[in-house]
Amino acid sequence: MLMRSRLRGTLATGFVGTTAALVALLVPGTAHAAPAKLSHASAVSQLNATGGIGLSSSGGCSNRNNATCTSLEQVNAATISDVRTLRNASHCALTITGGTEVGHSSGTYSHWNGYKIDFSPTSCVGNYVTGSFTRIADRGDGAARYRSAAGNVYAREGNHWDVTFCGGSAACTSAASS
After folding, report:
1. Does residue 8 carry a pLDDT above 70?
2. Cα separation, 173 vs 178, whole angstroms
3. CA distance 137 to 144
4. Which DSSP state fits 138?
5. Would you call 41 exposed, middle or buried from its count of C-beta atoms within 10 A (0-12, 13-18, 19+)?
6. What is the mean predicted confidence (pLDDT) over 135-161?
7. Is the Cβ–Cβ distance between 118 and 160 less than 8 Å?
8. What is the Cα 17 distance to its own chain's centre?
């Protein structure tokens, strides 16, 4: 009898959870799903499959808890998809110099939370960004900013491009643009 009671409780809980998930999918504004996350290995594998995208780490490592490493651990799947799109659209070789590791500014749409990637500032990337995207107001620290049609925001910092890949989120684009 105890086993049946536990089974009923498990089934009821599963049904309620499934129902809530369906409501969240079907009723706009009821929930905001967390972005799908990737492991470092999975993200690197996807980038390698695209070709022309490298990773550079001053510490020669990928531990996200070490600021001298370049990590893609827990990066948003949409961020990696958008990096691949940037590579294919620009035809530029890309070198990632910053990912989800510690040492970057905090915030909802931050490196740590999987939204931001830093790239080496090659002339190819610079020409593509400045020639293809809309110039918007400089960031508070003076970094020139550009917004893509997809809503991603590119900020030209001193020694790299700091890019917020918003994955289609209007709230992210708004935050990265203000």
Report:
1. no
2. 9
3. 7
4. P
5. exposed
6. 97
7. yes
8. 27
Name the burial class of residue 163, with classes exposed (0-12), middle (13-18) and buried (19+) by CB atoms within 10 angstroms of its CB: buried
Between the alpha carbon of residue 131 and those of residues 42, 52, 177, the distances in Å are 32, 21, 18
Amino acid at 153: V
When pLDDT is cut at 50, 70 and 90, the band that residue 32 belongs to is low
Tell me the C-alpha to C-alpha distance, in Å, between residue 138 and each of 107, 129, 147.
Answer: 19, 15, 11
d(CA 131, CA 148) in angstroms, rounded, equals 11
**Whether 74 contacts 65, CB under 8 Å:** no
Average pLDDT over residues 41-47: 98
pTM for this entry: 0.81
Nearest one of 128, 102, 129 to 113, comparing CA atoms: 102
Residue keyed to tokens 């809503």 = 151
